[in-house]
Write a structure and sequence with these properties.
Helix content is 18%, strand content 22%. It contains 10 helices and 27 strands.
């Protein structure tokens, strides 16, 4: 039994590119990488996809150092193959360092880690350290997230003692991207499969949530893919129980940034699932809910466990495990009869078109891949570039520790609504009847009868997992349970955050706060009584002031607060 790895392998715009509902399909920046698989041209390089979400973001000066961590469970990637492919395509990828869980042996090379590192290693800003947090197990989320914290620089396995000051790069922060999840309804089965299984499954779950909370309070943004199984309803049990629809955890954790998937569709798109076609630069496209057909799947069909279901698409929904966090109060109307956390928060390209990646099974060769596994590291790369744009100006980066610059508080704030291209078309229902009947059919009745999905009556009748027994979610105006708030433009996000941290003429001047150094000697432990006006905790550094020690001077803890007129909060200038 394995956790779902959300990536699936299959056999230059302006910074305001997403201000409109449509955009122009970017051209290949290197003709050598316009590769045909058979007669079909498939696979885009990271710079092409990044250009549609406002990347790269120009920097006026060197940013503060920051760390980005890719979580790898049960597999690793060949650094040589990833770097060779990206350099062949004219890119300059970062070298990464592998942080292996103590006592584990390095697992083999496989497609998930290869996809994650191909997406992110060529899109990170200057002064970024890239690491992989690798464990041998493919299902132990607790070990994986502990190792991710250690890769960020947080000390040891007692997450209750983690502090931002422990980070390797405390000023620039740390971002962790994780492309593994499990349907909430199947979590008990995953826990039972751990070796050894924990004696108290509920405690294990609470401990993982505690680790995610500790990562957040330490400032780490944990980005988690929402999954590739649409509404659910496929086998094995790690990928959803039959006839039930549920989102995937830990993307549904209140401490995670949940990332769904989009695809690029022609403006004439009629709602049908997209089958493999050649990518054509220059055409007018729009982002819609991701749902592909005949591209491989993690799902096995109920009635025939040996037959792979050909449909894949983004996962989302309402959590039964996690209470709805306050930052989602503005979108609670999407599910007014529930109190669960809504997933996803936002979305990025998962497919169609596909990502060009090294073939993990055939070194030196290329293939193509898709999945929210690609969308999650794309979002992590974008946030890393936003934070570089901020710290290069001496401003506070986004983090996950609460306060006005918490990533969730920012994206759900009306002040940042213009950041998103709202995805208003598409469905996550992989079992919908439009896939096999009518003008938008993408397969034949004979094929579906052959695998037992339709019976032989006239007209044919679905025999299991029908649109009546498993529904899905439909995209719409505003927040929805397929793509969340939509697709962010990171250049726009950076511009708005820079404006928010720039004191307005006539507004309150910056405030210098200084307090005596606590008895512990650590400025990281300054009490929160000084977090007034909406300011978050932390940001204290050791300095010297004349006023302390009865006027004879001595060490103090100091920080500066800047008032944001747009956010109406005081912000800690780090």
């Amino acid at each position: 039994m394995a956790a779902v790895a959300a990536g699936l392998l299959a056999p230059g715009l302006s910074a305001e590119a997403l201000a409109a509902d449509t955009f122009t399909a970017p051209a290949y920046t290197d003709p050598d990488c316009e590769i045909a698989f058979g007669s079909t041209v498939l696979g885009l390089t990271p710079d092409m996809i990044g250009s549609v979400v406002g990347l790269p973001i120009p920097l006026p000066s060197a940013p503060a150092p920051q760390t980005v961590v890719i979580v790898s469970m049960g597999q690793t990637a060949s650094q040589t193959d990833v770097r060779d492919m990206l350099q062949y395509c004219g890119l300059n990828p970062l070298t990464w360092t592998d942080v292996l869980k103590p006592g584990d042996t390095t697992p083999g090379v496989d497609s998930e880690a290869t996809l994650d590192l191909t997406v992110i290693s060529a899109m990170l800003p200057a002064n970024t350290t890239l690491k992989t947090a690798t464990i041998a197990s493919s299902i132990d989320f607790k070990a994986a997230l502990l190792n991710a914290g250690n890769a960020c620089g947080l000390d040891g396995t007692d997450w209750t003692q983690w502090r931002r000051s422990q980070l390797d790069t405390p000023t620039g922060g740390c971002i962790a991207s994780m492309s593994y999840a499990v349907f909430e309804d199947s979590l008990p089965n995953l826990i039972a499969a751990l070796s050894p299984p924990p004696p108290d499954p509920q405690l294990w779950f609470e401990e993982v949530e505690g680790i995610l909370a500790a990562l957040a309070s330490s400032g780490v943004i944990t980005v988690v893919s929402s999954g590739d199984e649409g509404s659910g309803g496929c086998l094995p049990l790690t990928r959803g129980q039959q006839n039930l629809m549920a989102p995937q955890w830990p993307s549904t954790s209140a401490h995670a940034l949940s990332v769904g998937g989009t695809m690029w569709a022609p403006t004439t798109w009629n709602g049908a699932a997209i089958t493999p076609v050649s990518y054509v630069p220059g055409q007018s496209l729009m982002p819609v809910t991701w749902r592909n057909w005949n591209m491989g799947s993690d799902c096995l069909w109920d009635e025939s466990p040996t037959i792979t279901w050909p449909g894949i698409g983004t996962t989302g929904g309402v959590s039964d495990l996690i209470e709805r966090p306050s930052y989602q109060s503005s979108v609670a109307g999407v599910a007014p009869s529930s109190v669960g956390r809504l997933s996803p928060d936002l979305a990025g390209l998962a497919g169609w078109p596909t990502w060009l990646v090294p073939d993990a099974a055939n070194p030196g060769q290329f293939t193509y891949a898709m999945g929210t596994s690609a969308a999650a590291p794309l979002m992590a790369a974008g946030l890393a570039q936003v934070n570089a744009a901020l710290t290069s100006r001496g401003m506070t980066p986004l983090d996950n520790s609460g306060g006005p610059l918490d990533i969730h508080e920012v994206i759900y704030s009306p002040a940042f609504a213009s950041v998103f291209n709202d995805v208003t078309q598409g469905t996550s229902n992989l079992w919908s009847s439009d896939l096999w009947t009518g003008p938008t059919a993408v397969t034949t009745v004979g094929f579906l009868q052959g695998i037992g999905f339709l019976d032989s009556s006239v007209p044919p009748v679905p025999t299991a997992n029908t649109s009546a027994s498993i529904t899905g979610y439909t995209a719409g105006v505003g927040y929805d349970l397929t793509t969340g708030l939509g697709v962010p433009n990171f250049a726009t996000l950076a511009r708005l955050l820079i404006a928010a941290q720039t004191p307005s003429p006539g507004g309150p001047p910056p405030i210098l706060q200084q307090v005596p150094v606590p008895a512990s000697g650590s400025c990281d432990l300054v009490i929160t009584d000084y977090d007034w006006g909406g300011a978050s905790s932390g940001g204290w550094s050791r300095s010297w002031a004349q006023w302390t020690n009865g006027g004879s001077g001595g060490p103090v803890c100091t920080r500066t607060l800047v008032y944001s007129g747009s956010l109406r909060y005081w912000i800690v200038q780090r």
